[in-house]
Write a structure and sequence with these properties.
- This protein folds into two domains: 67 residues, Electron transport complex subunit B, putative Fe-S cluster (3-methyladenine DNA Glycosylase II, Chain A, domain 3), CATH 1.10.15.40; 144 residues, Alpha-Beta Plaits (2-Layer Sandwich), CATH 3.30.70.
- It is 43% helix and 8% strand.
- The protein has a two-stranded antiparallel sheet.
- Helix 1 runs antiparallel to helix 3.
- The protein binds iron/sulfur cluster (SF4) (3 copies).
């Protein structure tokens, strides 16, 4: 029963994995909600998410607690590639594997995969990542049915990416390899890096086809 409620709560969260709620992602916040955390800590979800959470939890809706942030237009990360020093810190910080690159080489963001969490911005030691806002965020104003369906598909996608990433990090821990020594930081030859990047692009394209999105 608890698992069922956890799943319902987690599904109601936007899955950006931004940690603005103070927890390590959407599922950890869902677990904290069951343990009694306030329902108004998710800025990306905003009022509409609070409303759904209140109906699941059987409590009254509360206004978003702005000390955790405000709901705003969705932004996507953009890397000023000429300034990138290839340190891989952004790849390690990204909760949904939306950045590709290899050690000491330029990195770039797969724009359509970016959840807008902005965790990579703080991770970059040379401030070469900025957030660019283009679309309407999860709960600002009314959205069309097709836009809503797209958001739902994106949330499922980010959640799966987050789970895969956590699994990978757990595996690294079991093998006692520190996260900053994962494959992204092992020095590559240019040819190996090129292969790695092409493989990442083709994985992404396959995923997008699966989700019915244009290449
Ligand atoms: S979207 Fe961000 S703030 Fe909202 S629950 Fe997920 S991690 Fe927390
Ligand atoms: S690219 Fe940056 S903003 Fe986008 S999901 Fe990854 S860490 Fe978050
Ligand atoms: S953190 Fe900044 S400098 Fe380092 S790889 Fe990412 S974009 Fe490049």
């Amino acid at each position: 029963m608890e698992n069922e409620i956890l799943e319902r709560i987690n599904r109601a969260l936007p899955q950006t994995q931004c940690r603005k709620c103070g927890f390590d992602g959407c599922e950890p916040y869902a677990q904290a909600l069951i343990a009694g955390a306030e329902i108004n800590r998710c800025p990306p979800g905003g009022d509409s998410t609070i409303k759904i959470l209140s109906s699941i939890m059987g409590t009254s809706p509360l206004p978003l607690d702005s000390s955790y942030g405000i709901t705003k237009a969705k932004a996507e990360a953009y890397i000023h590639e000429k300034d990138c020093i290839g340190c891989t810190k952004c790849i390690i910080a990204c909760p949904v594997d939306a950045i590709i690159g290899a050690a000491k080489l330029m990195h770039t963001v797969l724009k359509d995969e970016c959840s807008g969490c902005d965790l990579c911005v703080k991770a970059c030691p040379v401030d070469c990542i900025e957030m660019r806002s283009e679309k309407i965020y999860h709960s600002v104003g009314q959205v069309s049915n097709s836009e809503f369906a797209k958001k739902q598909r994106q949330a499922v996608f980010w959640r799966e990416r987050f789970d895969n990433r956590n699994q990978r990090h757990d595996n690294l821990k079991k093998k006692k390899i520190p996260e900053d020594k994962n494959s992204a930081t092992i020095p590559f030859s240019r040819e190996e890096a090129r292969k790695e990047i092409l493989a990442a692009i083709s994985r992404t394209q396959a995923k997008r086809e699966l989700m019915g999105r244009p290449r």
